Amino acid sequence: MTVKTRESKFERIISYFGKAMAYLVMSVFALMTAYPILWLIMNSFKPTPEYRVNRIGLPRTWTLVNYVGAWKIGEFSKLIGNSFLYTIGASIGIILVATLAGFAFAKIKSKATAPIYGSFVIGILLSIQSLMVPIFLEVSQLDRIINDLLRLIGIIGQQNINIFYNSRLGVLLIYIGAGLPIAVYLCTEYIRGIPDSLIEAARLDGAGYFETFRRVILPMAVPIAMTVTILNITKIWNEFALINILVSKTELKSMPLGIYRFSGTMASDYGKQFAALVIGMAPMLIFYIIFRKQITKGVFAGAVKG
Amino acid sequence: MNRRPWKVVEERRAYWSMISPAIILYIFVFAFPIIISIVISLSNYAGGKMFGGQSWRITGFQQYVKLAGDPYFWLAMKNNIYIVLISVFGQLPLGLIFAYLIYRRIVKFGEFWQGILYMPAIISVIVIGIMWNIIFSPYGLIADVVNKSYAAGFSRQVEQIFAEAGGFQITDQVVKQLIAVSDPSALEIFAEPIEELKALLLAYSPDQFAVVKQDLVNLLARKWSAAFLAKRDVAMLPILFVVLWMWTGMYLILFLANMQKIDTGIVEAARIDGASEGQIIWRIMLPMLSGVVVNAAILCIAGSLNSFDLVFAMTGGGPARVTQLLSIYMYDRAFMGAPDYPLANAIALAIVIFSLVLIMLTKIVERRYGGRE
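YS: structure for the whole thing
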């Protein structure tokens, strides 16, 4: 009897020790995650001369001068509008195209579904960054061909017009296309779960396919549309690799391209560099604080099946 | 069952008009670029107008032959493999363990940990890359912490040396001891370290000990530098660390969400039967989560091939190309200096094939060892 209690006491010590270890590991990792970000935010409020002597502590003088400077150098007032346009435009585009296709794949029987839907699913795994060179060739060559044709039939003179390369339309189309595979997959699987009887009922009311889509499918698909859109907003706002090769004019660039200007070359003006980085992450951090639950759900949804 | 209520023609027309926007965009962004990369990689296209410009033709597989013998290609491939490995064998196990700790309520406040650990994943990779570049730089966080500890250690040694000498006495013995504890590279400023340092120290008056100590620390204490990162074998380490740092939270969330679907009764029963937490993870959780683990691994591999922006912002592939990835190499070939489109497209195709091979491997592993979903 006594032996048994001693054993369980020993076990309890072990389990307390394990618990302490677990908390320790968790805290170390959480601290490693949060501290660099806090460090960055803190330093963005220090004047650069103060950073040279006080790299770790809280600012002794709080200043916004870095933000004013960084905003000007990064030309962020030109970029932030584009970021909103690309993010909102492409998110809406993706969800419209994906729910429409999802409805067709899920609810209309066709032999074409298996190969076409299958290639969308494969697209989830393709690394879009590996295609940036051919995509660049495609958009720039298409523009040349279209310009030549237009010139041939006399619509434009010597000047060139940008349709896909160096144009907002081009960026939006590429972003929508790049977001489609996962969105089509999630929407199709979701719409499959909507009861056929609802669609039959709409049909008995005399509704055509597109009206059924508008009246029945779209309202029912709001939850998945929210999940997909929230997933896309964070992805598109932060996207860098593609837009980097799609536009070269400042007035078409997005925020990440502006922030990239602050890599390396700014090495002597830390204050502005820190402020630029905070400007870069603040919108998504705020978005995260507001929509954390939904973002988490999106991560989960995006990975349920391979 | 009744006959399908819609007419066949109407049905077919609706089907195709509904999926055509998606198909056209998919072709525009995925299918057609892949075809372009196949054609251009087999050609001698040198830029300019593809149609109606300088003529070019299909010349065969020599780009691939060139790649096979290109040491930079294989270095980039090796770095890509490192990222895949740290992703699959770093992020996944850590994510799984953290998820388990929260799931079993071994640590409380699960929401809090999740909220913090996922945070890096929603921040722009460009911001993350530049931020860590600063942190690892000689003017960053790590250098500051390390230098402070070096300086504190050095100033203790200086105090000790003078205490043994019995006060502020400048003898050859003291100078030699000072030199012994100094950073060798800092001593390079002296041609004759002993003579010159002695002369320097004699210039101070004996009551200025605190000033002397501070000056010695500034001059001779070891300083942290990230110069070791220029070496081929370690240059990838900071990048691998950041990769791990960024995405572990995502797998924590993924695994936790799936664990929460498992009946807690099973785990409780195993616990009562005397199974340890380790055994529960290995014998119960992993088999039940095997489908999820495989999907996570596939996701992980696909994601790790999208590390272009992180490396681009953090090191740009440097120093001396040692942190180059396949995608960075491709970018350099196409957009830096004289464009070499055939080679760049061959690399593009190599990445696509590489990712498909890895994903197939994962599927095979799943089929051999995988349990039920």
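YS: worth flagging: The radius of gyration of chain A is 26 Å.
IM: good catch. Also The mean pLDDT of chain A is 88.
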